């Protein structure tokens, strides 16, 4: 278990690429990121019902079998199979019945039957149940056609999960069905990771925080911060709004200091390239631990990775389309690993293209996409990465491989629904 008081330390050069690497393929960048990071979130104990969306820090072990005892799967009549045969069976009924929550206390003599309801524990002497709809009865005797399969319509004790078995493994993020399983197995409390605190910061002299404010023509509203904060929230993290800072190294440094104290990881957007106005990367470089990865992908440009006071900083592009794609491709698996649920890979599937495109070799491309009524992937009309409306239009991404590709309608392409990125 992680000691909450001793954060593991990442090495200053953990994000460094080997000398001479120019454009890094996406898969190499992902492999490096995966190798560089550690789970860092401490743990706490919660009641199962309060643990939705949290990540198990220890295996959840069944305190009780499900079902705890052998019981009936249907409403019908129960008896010992050994006393039945082929042809019409007529068994006298014992008085009383067995129901869920109202067990029958006596034993059913061999050759007799008992009225039994779904979920009732099988009384002593009963191992088989015949469905009510397959029976005739006058209240004193029950008649049905044999042969009946031994143990028909019954559930074995522990057939689902046996007491002492691992029901859910550490790293699992708890979803509504998992809460059902925990409760069924008598697991009241679970050890979970504390939510990863994700600081989000926007940079740029042109950025205006409040979309309700009056904005001058040279100003634009901050689209990335609500997107990245809500993504962090959807990923089960604790979003920490670090606000917006102007392109001023001192102000960015002060905000990163604040972020490093309040968050486990920081996502910045804007200023991450190598240009004159790219103050985030300039600052991170000046303070020594920047690794600027030129990733062979579109949209993307460089992804700036750095440690600021030991806290990983993901310098995402300012462009909202590129910021989202980089966040989904790089930040999501990284945050998942740091949060304790391991590295994640989006589940994609192959669908026919509804579009045509030629792409060059040497970089991976992500297109805003959605499925049409025939299950084919259509892509947003413009690849312009300033087209934020395309992000809302899309229900996922089409991922085109690093190699050259000539796509015509009907060509299989890999579609990654946004749901597979956790939102
Ligand atoms: P940069 O990465 O800072 O060079 O920014 C690239 C483009 O993204 C520029 O057109 C910026 O105005 C725009 N941009 C940067 N940050 C944001 C933001 N938070 N919301 C919307 N657009 C942004
Ligand atoms: Mg900028």
Identify the notable features of this structure and list them briefly.
single chain, 423 residues, alpha+beta, Molybdenum Cofactor Biosythetic Enzyme, Chain A, Molybdopterin biosynthesis moea protein, domain 2, Molybdopterin biosynthesis moeA protein, domain 3, six-stranded mixed sheet, 7 helices, 28 strands, 18% helix, binds adenosine monophosphate, binds magnesium ion
Describe it for me?
- The chain has helices spanning 26-36, 176-184, 224-234, 249-262, 279-286, 320-339, 389-393; strands at 43-47, 60-61, 71-72, 76-79, 87-98, 113-116, 128-131, 136-137, 141-146, 154-155, 166-168, 189-193, 197-203, 207-208, 220-221, 238-245, 265-269, 291-294, 297-298, 302-308, 311-316, 349-352, 357-359, 364-371, 377-379, 396-400, 405-407, 412-417.
- With 423 residues, it is an alpha+beta fold.
- It has four domains: 26-42 and 194-339, Molybdenum Cofactor Biosythetic Enzyme, Chain A (3-Layer(aba) Sandwich), CATH 3.40.980; 44-66 and 159-193, Molybdopterin biosynthesis moea protein, domain 2; 71-155, Molybdopterin biosynthesis moeA protein, domain 3, CATH 2.170.190; 349-421, Beta Barrel (Beta-clip).
- The strands form eight sheets. It has a six-stranded mixed sheet, with no helix packed on it. It has a six-stranded mixed sheet with strand order 16-13-17-21-20-18, sandwiched between helices. Strands 19, 22, 24, 25, 26 and 28 form a six-stranded mixed sheet that branches.
- The radius of gyration is 30 Å and the shape is elongated.
- The structure holds adenosine monophosphate and magnesium ion.
- The site of magnesium ion (MG) has 6 residues, from loops.
